[in-house]
Design a protein that fits this description.
Largest interface: A-B, 24 and 27 residues
Oligomer: heterodimer
Shape of chain B: globular
Order of helices and strands of chain A: EEEEEEEEEEE
Number of helices of chain B: 0
Strand content of chain A: over 45%
Distance between the termini of chain B: 36 Å
Number of strands of chain A: 11
Structural class of chain A: mainly beta
Chain lengths: 112, 112
């Protein structure tokens, strides 16, 4: 059974600091997604990582994938308040069926 | 505009009163799916469909039904809602080959 675990689940940090959210998954998969969710809103796609060693960056966010370690990281550089949100990683369980399994989410609060 | 729509967005109902939440996409996607989101649990898949008349159970299908009579629509049916189905529901769609999944705006359901 595919399980996806994120840590930390809650993160409070100051503006200007760097931090990393970790996403571990239990069985082989070569496609990993990162989503952002603001309170009361839907999921916004941030990154889709399709292969081992993939690295993608958008603004202050950078995501990477290590399929051998079954680990993805979402790194936040010089955090700003606007990045406060809940971040989810998700892994495809069955590629033919596009079945996503989500982590629990990391609630990120960035304080001025 | 490419989008996934859900209706209603908010619904308060009573135990046992049948309800349907509609989902529609305008991107000609083969794959559609329903998720529920509960605090601390992330999103869990309820049902999915890989094409017209092809549906299958996800991780938490009990108490739900779906149908896929047209490619664009994938309604979620609660025949006899119970309070433990109080949740935030998301519909999603994608091409069968992925990789991007598009989420609807969400439906907040309260069953009293």
């Amino acid at each position: 059974e595919l399980k996806v675990e994120q840590n930390p689940l809650f993160l409070s940090m100051q503006e200007g600091k760097n931090y990393t959210i970790y996403c571990n998954y239990s069985t082989t998969s070569d496609r990993l997604y990162w989503y952002r969710q603001d309170p009361g809103k839907s999921l916004e796609s941030l990154f889709v990582l399709l292969s081992n060693g993939a690295v993608k960056q958008e603004g202050r966010l950078m995501a990477s994938l290590d399929t051998k370690a079954r680990l993805s990281t979402l790194h936040i550089t010089a955090a700003v308040h606007d990045l406060s949100a809940t971040y989810f990683c998700a892994v495809i369980r069955n590629q033919g069926a596009q079945k996503l399994v989500f982590g629990q989410g990391t609630r990120l609060t960035i304080n001025p | 505009e490419a989008q996934v729509t859900q209706n209603p967005r908010y619904l308060i109902t009573v135990t046992g009163k049948k309800l349907t939440v509609t989902c529609s996409q305008n991107m000609n996607h083969e794959y559609m799916s329903w998720y529920r989101q509960d605090p601390g649990l992330g999103l869990r898949q309820i049902y999915y469909s890989m094409n017209v008349e092809v549906t299958d159970k996800g991780d938490v299908p009990e108490g739900y039904k779906v149908s896929r009579k047209e490619k664009r629509n994938f309604p979620l049916i609660l025949e006899s809602p119970s309070p433990n189905q109080t949740s935030l529901y998301f519909c999603a769609s994608s091409l069968i080959t992925g990789p991007e999944q598009y989420f609807g705006p969400g439906t907040r359901l309260t069953v009293t």
